[in-house]
Design goal:
The complex is a heterodimer of chains A (about 550) and B (about 110). Chain A has about 550 residues and is mainly α. Chain A has one domain: Up-down Bundle (Sodium/glucose cotransporter). Chain A is built from 19 helices and no strands. In chain A, helix 4 runs parallel beside helix 12 and helix 7 packs antiparallel against helix 14. Chain B is an all-alpha fold and about 110 residues long. Chain B is built from 4 helices and no strands. The chains are: A mainly alpha (about 550), B mainly alpha (about 110). The interface between A and B is large, with 56 and 53 residues.
Chain lengths: ~550, ~110
């Protein structure tokens, strides 16, 4: 073992040329697959939903590829390495959340919708206002999630390619954005899905090899690994294995943890880019198999990150991780370098880049579908537009979103990305999930209930975040440095004490849905409700796969 | 009157409303809800129990039960086990018990020819 790593001096580890070469290989290989897969892209169902012809296992792997973002690979491994057990809690929330999708949402959504989340929400309510609201919250969630991924790309570049000036990082962000735009324009949902499948397989294999490697160093004795991690972390010591290192400090931070737990477990089933993936399979049975496959892959992957996190603490050490350019996010790459040198680091770096690329592509196609299908096709043109016309608008939207993502990513480079992801989950759980559940299961639910719940959930989540310590006024007590988005410690307009708004905004959105419904005189459209209920459970009249 | 409200198959069930009011469909819906609602309550309760224990009972969670393995780690891994188990249970139930009846109704609605 070659400890100690001389990290404080070096701005990068490994050989950037190797990292770039392996990443370029990935881009060329996936581009070839995308071009091959997209030869039959003709209709709107092809562009938005990959012809609905993916199998359950294929879609399940793609869902895992979409869900296991850079935040969950680099972020969780780093959080476990530095904060120990509290980092593990994230992955549990992210995993258990899938049961909500499996039991309550996936199949019913597949049976009633066509392309977007708004298809289901507006099914039996007043079309235009509800569709508009659902599209706005879809675009909102996608935007925050997209920004987080692009901002993360900047940090990753600093670590892996040795580019530490801002202009160079901006160029790389722009390149990542352009590759993503190419994938989505050429491949549509089919190409995007294949990128996610390839990436998920590489990610799980890469993490799996590293996990076995770490365990082998401790003769497959988990207790010995944990002991070594404690020994290497004198500051945290035994606390590394116990809950509370990060969140146990005060009553407020404990409450914050519950808020986060709520947003994580209820957010997944409201993420529009996850929901849209259920339309890429031919029927509800395949949607069920998709989620089942996704749960197994995501669960096993999070077990890997537990070992990788403690492995990074034991083999690299918290001081070296904190001193590296990407801080916590560099734990997994540093561990790869420690284990397998330049080559393994190059592979893991390429996989991390591929991760950002695949997630960004999935978000972009979701946002463009929502704009073209919901806002342009249904609200502006009132459904009087051909599928081709919609797809043309969707392609233009892809370009616009791609440019927004690049500019936003350059602007947000170096920002605190965790809060953007938490915001996306909190908005998804508050603005989307209540209306999805009410419209599927509550007969009386009506348009006002949907609008109040969506706008109330979206608005309260964003307002509470804006006036929370993540945006202004959070100061590190030891160093006096700002921990907020606005780094000027003189500016402090925060009055909401928690980092995550979920504990307020999620119950509020559920209650607003009830109050809005009960105060409205609008009756239930019994015919549409009957159609929705019967179709959702039996699959009658569901959109069929496209055969070429 | 739009065609979408009309189911095409069995003359007894000419609209979705007829299907919705039929005893077969009521039974299907009852069985679905009787499986998924209690299961959802169960896993959410178990998840929040775990979150609250980690948050407010760190002493209990830190109890060692062998080597460096403590109750917190065991309960955390328990969340993985329960998630996998519920997934297996649901998929088996839905494939074997729910799908055949749903397909039966679907065939009636869409007509045997499709």
């Amino acid at each position: 073992m070659s400890t100690p790593l001389l990290l404080p001096q070096a701005t990068t580890v490994g050989d950037p040329k190797v990292n770039i070469a392996i990443f370029a290989l990935f881009v060329v290989a996936t581009l070839a697959i995308v071009i091959r897969a997209s030869r039959n892209n003709k209709s709107a169902a092809d562009f938005y939903a990959g012809g609905r012809s993916f199998t359950g296992p294929q879609n399940g792997i793609a869902i895992a590829g979409d869900y296991l973002s850079a935040a969950s690979f680099l972020g969780i491994a780093g959080a476990i390495a530095l904060n120990g057990y509290d980092g593990f809690l994230y992955s549990i929330g992210f995993l258990v959340a899938w049961l909500v999708a499996l039991l309550l949402v996936a199949e019913l959504l597949r049976n009633t919708g066509r392309f977007t989340m708004a298809d289901v929400l507006s099914f039996r309510l007043k079309q235009r206002p509800v569709r508009m609201a659902a599209a706005i919250s879809t675009l909102g969630v996608c935007f925050f999630y997209l920004l987080a991924q692009m901002a993360g790309a900047g940090g990753l570049v600093a670590l892996l390619l040795g580019i530490d000036n801002r202009a160079g990082q901006s160029v790389v962000i722009a390149v990542v954005g352009l590759i993503m735009i190419t994938y989505v324009l050429v491949g549509g949902m089919k190409g995007t899905t294949w990128v996610q499948i390839v990436k998920a397989v590489l990610l799980v294999i890469g993490a799996g090899i590293m996990t076995l490697w770490v365990l082998a160093k401790y003769t497959f004795n988990l207790s010995a690994l944990l002991g070594a991690a404690v020994d290497k972390s004198p500051a945290a010591g035994e606390k590394l294995l116990n809950p509370g290192l990060q969140y146990g400090a005060t009553g407020i931070s404990k409450l914050d943890f519950i808020s986060l737990g709520l947003a994580l477990v209820l957010g997944t089933a409201g993420l529009p880019h996850v929901l849209m993936r259920f339309y890429t399979v031919p029927n509800s049975r395949e949607a069920r198999r998709s989620v089942s496959w996704a749960i197994w892959i995501i669960g096993i992957f999070y077990l890997f990150t537990l070992v990788l996190g403690y492995g990074a603490a034991a083999l690299v050490g918290p001081d070296a991780i904190r001193a590296a350019p990407g801080k916590a996010n560099s734990a997994a790459p540093l561990l790869a370098y420690e284990l397998g040198g330049e080559i393994l680091l190059g592979v893991i770096s390429a996989v991390a880049f591929a991760t950002i690329l695949a997630v960004v592509a999935g978000l972009t196609i979701t946002a463009s579908a929502s704009f073209a299908h919901d806002i342009y096709g249904q609200v502006i043109k009132k459904g009087q537009v051909s599928g081709d016309g919609e797809v043309r608008v969707a392609r233009i939207t892809v370009l616009v979103i791609g440019v927004v993502a690049i500019v936003g990513g350059i602007f947000a480079n170096g920002q605190n990305i965790a809060f953007l992801v938490a915001l996306a989950f909190a908005v998804a759980a508050s603005a989307n999930l209540p209306t999805i559940l009410y419209s599927l299961f509550w007969r009386r639910f009506n348009t006002r209930g949907a609008l109040w719940s969506i706008y109330g959930g979206l608005g309260s989540a964003i307002i509470l975040i804006a006036f929370s310590p993540v945006v202004s006024g959070k100061v590190d007590k030891k160093t006096g440095a700002s921990l907020s988005m606005i780094t000027d410690t003189g500016i402090d307009f925060s009055w909401f004490p928690l980092d995550n708004p979920g504990i307020v905004s999620i119950p509020l959105a559920f209650v607003l849905g009830i109050i809005g419904t009960l105060t409205s005189k609008e009756g239930t459209n019994v015919d549409k409700f009957a159609e929705m209920e019967v179709r959702s459970l039996t699959g009658a009249g569901a959109e069929k796969a496209v055969h070429h | 009157m739009s065609d979408t409200r009309r189911a095409a198959g069995d003359p007894e069930m000419t609209t979705y409303r007829d299907v919705q009011l039929s005893p077969d469909f009521s039974e299907l819906r009852r069985r679905f809800r009787r499986f998924v609602f209690p299961m959802t309550g169960l896993f959410l309760a178990w998840y929040f129990l775990y979150v609250l224990l980690a948050d407010y009972a760190p002493g209990f969670m830190s109890t060692k039960i062998g080597g460096n393995i403590n109750i917190a780690l065991l309960l955390g891994l328990g969340q993985f086990v329960s998630t996998f188990a519920i997934t297996l249970l649901y998929v088996r139930w839905a494939d074997q018990k729910f799908d055949p009846d749903a397909k039966h109704l679907r065939d009636q609605i869409e007509g045997e020819t499709q």
